[in-house]
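Narrative of activities, Objective 1.

The group set out to show that a structural description can be obtained from nothing but a protein's sequence at a throughput compatible with the screening campaign. Below is one input-output pair from the validation batch, recorded exactly as produced.
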Amino acid sequence: MSRNINIILVNTSHPGNIGSTARAMKTMGLDQLTLVAPKNFPSDIANAKAVGCVDVLEKARVESSLDEALSDSNIVIGFSARYRKSNIPSLSMEQLMTVLNKQKEHKASIVFGNEQSGLSNDELKLCNYLVSIPTHESYASLNLASAVQIFSYEYFKSYNVKPTIIHSTKLSTHSSKLVLIKKFLSIMQDLKIITDKNRNSLTQNIHIIFNKTDLTENEVNLYLGILSNIDKALQK
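Output recorded for this entry:
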């Protein structure tokens, strides 16, 4: 199974959900788990829920922020309990599997939010795509580990599908794209395009625009070079 799939849990409240997630992953051949600011971890409760899968917990990464967790990711998928009005592209589960199978050689992070509140707007803007799992209207709440199990099963099922398109060049990582975004915003600040009134909305939209584009490392370096030349011209 691909080691390029990284499951990320953000601000998980109950350690039992972390343990159940580890079990859901391993039954489908996934073992790369990252925890962002978990409320209680390590935990005996998590270990008890991860029956036969404690090894996934033992090697799990723990980061203080989602930005840090995504630093080496090429593709970022955010799972939301519902479809939101957003400029971030939304995918069905079937469409997501197509995207992942076309880009098997790149690292994909699958991000799940807190059990009660889900992913915040600031966390969502770091995602390239959003996915929502359809549920019956009479009871739409899906347990965190169940959501991870559904994704893991769908990925396991589709993993051997032959991709029709393979990227011949390496996609940029989240961290290199973030450097580009910060440089772009800095120049907009110097040009006084960003004001106190539009700062939050403009910053969020710029993140969304860059994150929904499959930029390669070469393209990021090209744009950084162009922006550096613009910056030098502005300083004269």
